[in-house]
Amino acid sequence: MGSYQNLLQQKITNLTQSKVIQFFVLLSIIISISIIALSEYKSIMQETRDRLNSKVISFHLETFDELSKVFEKNTQKNFVNSVHDNKLIRENFEDMLRLLRISTVENLFVITKDQEGRYYFLLDSETDEDKRANINEPFNPFGDFWDKCYEENKVQIFHHPQDQNLWISVSYPIIQNNKTVAIIGADISSQLDLTTQMNLKNFTVFFLWILILSALWFVLLYVSALYFRHKYHEGYLDSLTHLYNRKYLNDILLKRLGRGYQLFMIDIDFFKKINDTYGHDVGDYVLVEVANYMQQLTREEDSLIRYGGEEFLIYTTQLSSRQCVEYANRIRAKIENTPIIYKDIECKVTISIGINTEISNLESFADALKKADKALYEAKSSGRNCVKVAK
Amino acid sequence: MKTVFLLFSLLLSNIVFASDKGWEQLILEKMVQSIYAGKEIRVYTVDESIERTLGNSFYINLVKNCNQCDIIIGENREENSCKKPKIVLKYRNYLNDKSAVGVFFWQKGRPTIRFSSEKLKGFGLHINGELSKFVTTKNN
Fold first, then answer.
1. Consecutive sets of 10 residues in chain B, 140 residues long: mean pLDDT of each?
2. Residues with Cβ within 8 Å of residue A220, at least 6 apart in sequence
3. I need a surface site. Which of A112, A198, B35, B59 has the fewest CB within 10 A?
4. Is A20 within a domain?
5. Residue B107 in contact with partner chain A when CB distance is under 8 A
């Protein structure tokens, strides 16, 4: 059960260390951040757009307010009748409307309601005879905001559905004796909103660039981190055998020595002879193969180090003296029983191992290593291909 | 409620037709249907644009002879000899033409409808349903 759990844990560790998984996790993080940033940006832009638009609308309303005051002042408290009966007043008022009709205002007119509740035109700023609404021409009020303006004596704003030429319609009441007698109607072209949108679009492009550059920077950072990690690890590996090197021993292992640990000093027997007889290529091949076999037999938590030349060091923990000897003998037997074949050359290689199994907490690593080395010397002196334990 | 329904149906059809021609067809159909409810309506027009607009209408049957029609749509002097009610497309003509019982035109981007109760009465007609709110007793 325990070993199954360890296996599972190992698998999970391997999975999380997998570069593909890490890349996809990074990608998901980037996408998630981008989505959050985009939605936040969208809402900010919408808010900005609404604020800009309401500024524009309030500007129009200020104008209508002034206009309605002029209308009221010049008609001696009877606006509708004055406009109906006096052509000169009508023409003057229409001129005023024309002056105020800026390019974004599609239509600017004044309407009133008869006793039957139907709307008709009083004034129109349009000069084109084909488009112009003459006095008393019916007006078709789409939506109930015109009626609301009449009933509530308050300005009403109606937003037209999207994709239409008109953006909003404003109905501004002309009030006399606390009663709405007519309405200034203005249709504001969707061009205005489109202009706002177009201007805000530049910010969107800028924001998207920032987002893309941030994502690229993030990826670059990740790749650099991977590269740095790779280089960092490479510095602690022996280039031939790919085992840990002396630098690893000094920089890393010495800083995290356990409370009780054991050291194996291993030396390939007659390695100089192999080099001298078959050449350095074979010698190197033998080193690689021996390193591979040893690595196959060492545990995940053990550290296998190429100490120098044909000498190796195994740092292990939580093993009894008997277990250490069995462990060392397993490695020794494996090397002895596996001939190393390089091209047509078959080498029978053996190793000698010196073990230091009883290292006290007070003992320095150098002293512990010296003892293991001494045991190795004993193994060498005793005919090689054997394991000796330091006393 | 009916007004809301009418508005909704107009807006819905706007989405479906997505053009002024679509609107025109729908509104003209509604107008003639409100005069001649529950029968196939024979319409005479010499206006090619109206002919195109109403050509594929399900409710309207375009006829070539003015005397065979129920109603005339559009402005044309030749129709004066044929004494039939008329729906015109210009407000000025609606005011001046005694047989123009109704008018449909675009004003400030809004489709505008009017029916004259007096002129309708002259032909023994009246408006049914939703469009009755557009009937006016005034001359304008």
1. 47 47 82 85 87 83 88 74 87 89 90 91 88 79
2. none
3. A198
4. no
5. yes
Q: Given CB atoms, is B108 within the 8 Å cutoff of chain A?
A: yes
Domain final residue pick, A196, A222, A237: A196
Q: How many domains does chain B have?
A: 1
CB-based contacts of A28, cutoff 8 Å, min separation 6? none
Nearest residue on chain A to B3, judged by CA atoms?
A143
Rounded to whole angstroms, how far apart are CA atoms A270 and A289? 16
Domain count, chain A: 2
Residue A57, domain CATH: 3.30.450.20
pTM: 0.57
Chain A residues with CB under 8 Å of a chain B CB are 106-107, 109, 114, 116, 118, 120, 133-134, 136-140, 142-143, 161, 165-166, 185, 187
Please answer yes or no on whether A165 and B138 come within 8 Å at the CB atom. no
Spatial separation of the C-alpha atoms in residues A268 and A288, rounded to whole Å: 12
- Boundaries of domain holding A84: 39-196
A309: CATH? 3.30.70.270
* A142:B138 CB<8 A: no
